[in-house]
Specification:
With 118 residues, the chain is α+β, with helices and mostly antiparallel strands. It has helices at residues 5-9, 21-24, 28-31, 61-69, 103-106, and strands at 41-42, 50-57, 77-83, 90-94, 97-101, 109-111, 115-116. β3 and β4 form a beta hairpin.
Length: 118
Amino acid sequence: MQKSAVDKAAPHSGDPLVPSPDNCGDCGALEAGTCLARRTARLSDYRPGDKGSIVQVCGDPEFRLRLMEMGFVKGTEVKVIKFAPLTDPIELVIKGYHLTLRKSEAADVLMTNPEQAA
């Protein structure tokens, strides 16, 4: 069986944060070669006080829809307030309300590079 260009560019290493057909399922961005995961920061990598804008939400289609219903749409500003004592979950402010996400869920939210909030 011959590997596709996507398989060669992003081999599955067992890391759920590495874009690959195993991790990203049927995401059109991965197949089209327009996946932004390597060129953006992940919300899970932000630290308390960091803020940035959403670039893309990845993951399962049902999960993406749920996040979009909560306001996670392209261009929306998100600020990290704090982490729980064991770094999971993460408390965020989005569109004026506080929300918590598991670190694994936040890893599916691609963001601009973080900047420190004033």
